[in-house]
Amino acid sequence: MAEEPVVVWERPERGARGPAPERSRGQITRAAVRLADAAGLASVSVRQVAKELGTGPASLYRYVAGRDDLVDLMVDAATGEIDLTVALTGEPVTDLVALATRTREVHLRHPWLLEVTPEAMRVGPRGLDYLEFALGALAPVRMTGPAKLEAVAVLNALVAMVSRATLQSVRSPTARQSAQAAYLATAAGKGAHPLLAQALTDSPEARPAAHPAADPAQDAQDLFERVVRRVLAGLLAPAPESPRSHRD
């Protein structure tokens, strides 16, 4: 009978017998993160991590079963960089916007995190701490436990989406972005899309020279906070009564 799969954190780091380990999972994880920070998630393999550590691949299989374990350990280590020592204010939206900002900072520091698919994500010890903190921020909200977990999941997905867009905008050629903006402005000015024209007129890019735009990084942060705050306001609002409840 095949053994039930067990996450890496439930397996001992070393056997009860045998020589003392030459490495630790922490060392292996840090080496894997260095590789991913430098060249992306695709650069991480047991063989490459072993090379980074100056040892043979076979020696690492005492600590990890394979690449999936490496990725799990890396994600959990990066999650541990999110500061959870910040005191909660008791205002759920404010606390979760601040948590989202700190999470985004980790995404931008470790872009490979955004390459890990949701299906491949595993919650480890640091991930449990993150969930506990987020649920603590939601404590004043009258919602069911599952609804709170759904709100945290939506928040995480939103932060990942915005972080990915931020990184892509940085990597995209400026000339390409300028060409796209010019095309939109020209198309909107032809009169066939009046709502788009109005929206573009209201955008920060349309500010007159007498009121120059703020620092782009600050603009991006302000936009991020506004979007997260609006989404959270909707998620945490009392659910409307269904028509059926009125009939009953």
Automatic annotation (TrEMBL):
Protein keywords: DNA-binding, Transcription, Transcription regulation
MF terms in GO: DNA-binding transcription factor activity; transcription cis-regulatory region binding
SUPFAM superfamilies xref list: Homeodomain-like (SSF46689), Tetracyclin repressor-like, C-terminal domain (SSF48498)
GO biological process: negative regulation of DNA-templated transcription
A Pfam family reported for this protein in Swiss-Prot or TrEMBL: TetR_C_1
Annotated segments matching region Disordered: 1-25
Record-annotated HTH tetR-type domain positions: 22-82
Gene3D superfamilies cross-referenced by the UniProt entry: Homeodomain-like, Tetracycline Repressor, domain 2
DNA-binding region: 45-64
Origin: domain of life: Bacteria
Bias type Basic and acidic residues, positions: 10-25
Protein name: TetR family transcriptional regulator
